[in-house]
Amino acid sequence: MVSAATLFAMKDGFAKYLGGIYPVMQLLWVQYSLLLLIVLPTIVVRHGWRSLWPSHIIPQIARGMMSMLAAGLFYIAITEIPLADATALIFISPVVVTALSPFLLHENVGIRRWLAVIVGFIGIIFIVQPGFQEFRLGTLASLGAGVIWAFFQIITRSLAQQEIPLVTVLYTALIGAATMNILLPFYWVTPVLSDGVMLLLMAGFASVGQALLIYAFVAAPAVVVAPFVYVTIIVATATGYIAFGDLPGLMTWVGIAVIIASGIYIALREAKVKKPN
Questions:
Q1: φ, ψ for residue 7 (rounded to 5)?
Q2: pLDDT of 275 over the 70 cut
Q3: Which end of the chain has fewer CB within 10 Å, C or N?
Q4: How many domains is the chain partitioned into structurally?
C-alpha cells in the first residue's frame, strides 16, 4: 500500500506538469489505455475468456464512469492549485462514504463515526478557508472529485464480494479508454518525445499502483493496509515542493492532519464494528 500510494502521488506529479501542456482527456486516454493493455491479457491468462463478462454489468459501467469523472476533475484541480491541497481535498471521500453508507449501503453508523465525519468536514474548511482566500476552480474540482470518488468506493464495496477484482479493474480501464478513444480526434495534441516518455511513465505508475493496491488488500485485512493510503498526501506534498515549489501553509497543514486523523479513525472504527464476535 505504501508503494501504491507513492506511485499514485508521483503519477499525479507528472499529470500536474503535463496538464499544463496537454488536454486532460489526453492524459486520461493514455492512463486508461495502458491499464487496459496490461489488465486484459492478465485476466485471460489467469481466469480465461469467460471471466471477461461480469456478473453485474451496469454497476461496472457506473464504476468506470465515476472513476473517469473523478480522475478528470482531479487532473483539472492539480493544474490550478498545489498538489498537496488537491490530494488532501480528494481524501474527503472516506468521510462522504461514511456519511452516505446508512442511505446507500444500509449500514449502521454510530455516533463516534458521525463525529469523525463532522471532524473530517472541519478539516476541509481549514484547507479551503472560505472567506479568507479566493475560492478557486481547482478547489471546487478537487472537492467534486472527492465526492464522485466516494460514490466510486460505494459501488466498489457492493461489487467486492461479487466479482473478480481484476475484472472490476478491467471494466474501469475499458470504460475510460473507450470513452477517450471516441473523443480522441477532438482533443489530440501530438507530444514531443520527452513528454511522450513522461506520459508513459505517468500511465505506468498508475497501472503498477493499481496492481499493488489490489495485492495489498489480498495480502492483509483492510484495517491493516487502508490507513497507509494517506502516504499519498505526504509524497504529494514532497513532490509539489521539489518539482513546483509549492508548500502548504499552516492552516492547510492543520486541515490535512485533521482529514488524515478522521479517515484513519473511520477505517479503524468500521473494522471494529464489523469484526465478528
A1: -65, -40
A2: no
A3: C
A4: 1
CA distance 86 to 78: 6
The CA–CA distances, whole Å, from 103 to 64, 106, 110, 264 equal 22, 6, 14, 22
Predicted pLDDT of residue 44: 87
What are the backbone angles phi and psi of residue 130, rounded to the nearest 5°?
A: -60, 135
- Cβ neighbours of 181 (radius 10 Å): 12
Rounded to whole angstroms, the Cα distance separating 87 from 98 reads: 19
Instruction: Write the pLDDT tens digit of every residue in 215-234.
Output: 887 787 766 777 888 889 88
CA dist 83 and 77 (Å) reads 8
Ranked by mean pLDDT, which of 88-92, 99-103, 128-132, 202-206 comes out on top?
202-206
Ranges 122-126, 165-169, 217-221: which has the least confidence: 217-221
- What domain range is 11 assigned to? 2-274
Indicate the pTM of the whole model.
Answer: 0.86
**What is the Cα–Cα distance from 149 to 90, expressed in whole angstroms?**
8
3-state secondary structure 44-97: HHHHCHHHHCCCCHHHHHHHHHHHHHHHHHHHHHHHHCCHHHHHHHHCCHHHHH
Residue type, 270: E
Q: Which three cell numbers stand for residue 200?
A: 508513459
